[in-house]
Amino acid sequence: MLERLSWKRLLFELAIGCLPALILGLLVGYLPWLLLVSVLAVLGWHFVNLLRLSHWLWIDRSMTPPAGRGSWEPLFYGLYQMQARNRRRRRELGHLIKRFRSGAESLPDAVVLTTEEGTIFWCNGLAQRLLGLRWPEDNGQNILNLLRYPEFTRYLRQRDFTRPLTLVLNGHRHLEFRVMSYSEGQWLLVARDVTQMHQLEGARRNFFANVSHELRTPLTVLQGYLEMMEESEMKGARRDKALHTMQEQTRRMDGLVRQLLTLSRIEAAPTLDLHEKVDVPMMLKLLQGEAETLSQGRHEIHFSTDAGLRVFGNDEQLRSAISNLVYNSVNHTPPGTRIDISWQRTPQGALFKVTDNGPGIPAEHIPRLTERFYRVDKARSRQTGGSGLGLAIVKHALSHHNSRLDITSLPGKETCFSFLLAPGLIVNGELAQNTVR
């Protein structure tokens, strides 16, 4: 419609321009020359408008086109509308790119956009931190020149991306790479930090290996004695020794299973409603008798207890934490050691401490003491019946009370295991509700 209208205007303008020349030529003569002058004048007018258009497009570049007349008016207006549409599309594209980049920055993965040859044209902030890229300095660089790992180079060049590639960067960080087609001739490379997953998988393997090892030893002893009883009749002292040993190994397995069940029960309760009043002084009074029985006079045990200091919490978990700390001090310190157990109110809250003047713990072992099955002296721990689970139970039980186990040790002088419960958990004669996640 606009095109037909423009041609009509062109013909109309040509006719209007030639009409005076036609009339004047019929009156005075020289019709061809007058028509030629009129056509040249119309062409000159179009040439001027063409120059104005060229100046606006390439030199002026203002938002508003020059005012047009006649057949040039719809042309200028159409160009203006087309330019406005292009500006809107560029703005929309810009907003779309911003939203994409904002979303990519929010992802928990490193994102890199490259060509099929590996040339980088964008990456998010996490890619800069995990992969060591720099932006915009690395724009246009080939990613194979920046990530110099033979496995990664083969992975990109083989172009078989059905399975992810896992690399270990800097000797400790595990990254999982996935590559997918982003658009024609472009790749979207995603790298995810799976270090924690690998650590958890390693912890799971170690856990089952340790459990299998811990159970295999007593089972081997029981199986050996049972085979001896089956093959020959055992009497007297030999029979009593066999029965005593089997009972010890059975108690050891029973204790291990009970501690595993306690640990898994504590771990399976991520949220506790700490409304239960826990009478810690009464608990310590009972533990004092048990600790003295367990020690059999080999240690000098002293209890210092605030008789009125009760707290809100979970009785079972606090009992597990406190009893494990007390039993550990008796089981893992040599005879003649002085053991001090303290439960006192402080300005920071309720403080529980177990201190001994035994040989102490080397500093390199302290950060790992709360790991499952970790022992400083494995041979001695097995002799005393230690499973390596006690401090792991303490750690998880205290975390549910928004507390943590502090361990300090000066070898040859003093070792202290302690934890602090917040003042809000101390019972002050009023029923309170405290929830810890």
UniProtKB/TrEMBL annotation:
Major location category of this protein: membrane
UniProt name for this protein: Phosphate regulon sensor protein PhoR
PROSITE patterns according to UniProt: HIS_KIN, PAS
UniProt GO molecular function: ATP binding; phosphoprotein phosphatase activity; phosphorelay sensor kinase activity
Sorted UniProt keywords: ATP-binding, Cell inner membrane, Cell membrane, Kinase, Membrane, Nucleotide-binding, Phosphate transport, Phosphoprotein, Transferase, Transmembrane, Transmembrane helix, Transport, Two-component regulatory system
Enzyme Commission identifier(s): 2.7.13.3
First-level EC class: transferase
Superkingdom of origin organism: Bacteria
InterPro entries: BphY/WalK/GraS-like (IPR050351), HATPase_C_sf (IPR036890), HATPase_dom (IPR003594), His_kinase_dom (IPR005467), HisK_dim/P_dom (IPR003661), HisK_dim/P_sf (IPR036097), PAS (IPR000014), PAS-like_dom_sf (IPR035965)
Keyword Cytoplasm: no
Phylogenetic classification of the source organism: Bacteria, Pseudomonadati, Pseudomonadota, Gammaproteobacteria, Enterobacterales
Domain PAS: 96-172
Reactions mediated catalytically: ATP + protein L-histidine = ADP + protein N-phospho-L-histidine
UniProt topology in membrane: Multi-pass membrane protein
Any Gene Ontology CC annotation: plasma membrane
KW Membrane (keyword) present: yes
